[in-house]
Amino acid sequence: MDKLKNVLREGRALLGVSLSEEQEERMLLFVHLLNEANHFLNLTGFRTEEDILVEGVLDSLTAFTLEDLVFVGKSLLDVGTGGGIPGIPLKIACPSLKLTLVEATAKKCHFLETTLRALGLEDVDVLCERAETLAHHPSLRERFDLVTARALGGLREILELTVPFLRCGGLAFYYKGREAKKEVEEAQRALEVLRCSIRTLREVAIPFRPRKTTLVLIEKKAPTPLPYPRRPGIPKKRPL
Ligand code: SAH
């Protein structure tokens, strides 16, 4: 446990994120619960607590390096959150976030509910439904200040699954790999159709790993045309 605590402490300092002792304990408890449940729920591809901590939690926290992104008091929707990444680490680090987690698989939602309770994070909503369906609900469409997704799909697909939830002027941020630039080039039509523009593309080193995450920050300029997102499965099958 002490080793993990040091990894978290050094890692979050490298990212310029400050956490209290209690927040660090919560972060490590989250890592522990995710790892325990992972053996039978397949919540993440990471197989050890250290990998979950570095590649999952610290990766999530890279978003705090974007100075255009203000989290305090904002509403954030995390689409395809799986075991809660990046939404839960962001909420632990910034408790005033109004967090909503979207996850289509019921057993994963059950894990999220029990984990949020164990972590003492109460004001978080878990919605167990596909994003394509939820995005047409008037109470959710164009309602969020911020949206995010990690490991959900290609940029063209995730734009369609997330942008409809954003209010105009709201920001979407995505965690991408080495192909980020190419994905952005290929997403020009999707950006146009969904009335969005790129604000920033930023490579951030993951502490203790050779890998880098590219954060893609996008601003929504105008309301999403009503047909989007299309029916469940179509954004993936025929991306914009
Ligand atoms: N964001 C997490 C999980 C990525 S795996 C992480 O970074 O570890 C992608 C998750 O998205 C899966 O749990 C899958 O069930 C969910 N998902 C895929 N398509 C979805 C959709 N259209 N609506 C809601 N959830 C979806």
Could you please describe the fold and organization of this structure?
It is a single chain. By secondary structure, the chain is α/β, with parallel strands linked by helices. 40% of the residues lie in helices and 21% in strands. Helix 5 (106-119) links the parallel strand 2 and strand 3 (124-127). S-adenosyl-L-homocysteine binds at residues 44, 79-82, 85, 102-105, 108, 130-132, 150-152, 161.
Shape: globular
Tell me the structural class. alpha/beta
What is the string of helix and strand elements? Answer: HHHEHEHEHEHEHHEEH
- The CATH architecture category equals 3-Layer(aba) Sandwich
CATH superfamily: Vaccinia Virus protein VP39
Uncertain runs with pLDDT below 50, 5 residues or more? Answer: none
How far apart lie the N and C ends? 45 Å
C-alpha-based Rg, rounded: 17 Å
**What amount of the residues lies in strands?**
15-25%
Topology:
Layout (H helix, E strand, L loop, with lengths): L1 H13 L6 H21 L7 H13 L13 E5 L7 H7 L4 E5 L3 H14 L4 E4 L3 H4 L9 E7 L4 H8 L3 E11 L3 H7 L1 H6 L2 E10 L6 E9 L13 H4 L3
Parallel strand pairs: 1-2, 1-4, 2-3, 4-5
Antiparallel strand pairs: 5-7, 6-7
Helix pairs in contact: 1-3, 2-3, 2-4, 2-5, 3-4
This protein binds S-adenosyl-L-homocysteine.
At a glance:
This protein has 240 residues and is of the alpha/beta class. 40% of the residues lie in helices and 21% in strands. The chain has a 7-stranded mixed sheet, sandwiched between helices.
Overview features:
10 helices, binds S-adenosyl-L-homocysteine, alpha/beta, Rossmann fold, seven-stranded mixed β-sheet, 240 residues, single chain
